[in-house]
């Protein structure tokens, strides 16, 4: 359902849905990443960073997520400096 909502550009709804699902399955790496991605698409950068960090805590060996965290940090800086 989250994928469907995101594909329809209903990012806020998708983010809320993924967040609820990820909270119900706190050790599910894929759901944490999906929640983070949906948060990023919904321009909820602080929440996205929190979920990316959660994903890293579940699977620390997935280094690609570190790039997303740095990217979000840059986005937040640019977003709040506009």
Automatic annotation (TrEMBL):
InterPro entries named among the record's database cross-references: TMTC_O-mannosyltransferase, TPR-like_helical_dom_sf
GO biological process terms on file: protein O-linked glycosylation via mannose
Organism: Rhamnusium bicolor
GO terms of molecular function: mannosyltransferase activity
Listed SUPFAM superfamilies: TPR-like (SSF48452)
Highest taxon in the source lineage: Eukaryota
This protein's name: Tetratricopeptide repeat protein
Any one Gene Ontology cellular component term annotated for this protein: endoplasmic reticulum membrane
């Amino acid at each position: 359902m989250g994928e469907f909502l995101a594909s329809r550009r209903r990012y806020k709804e998708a983010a809320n849905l993924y967040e609820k699902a990820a909270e119900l399955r706190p050790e599910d790496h894929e759901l944490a990443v999906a929640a983070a991605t949906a948060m990023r698409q919904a321009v909820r950068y602080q929440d996205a960073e929190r979920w990316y960090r959660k994903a890293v805590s579940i699977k620390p060996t997935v280094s690609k997520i570190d790039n997303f965290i740095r990217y979000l940090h840059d986005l937040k800086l640019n977003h709040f400096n506009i």
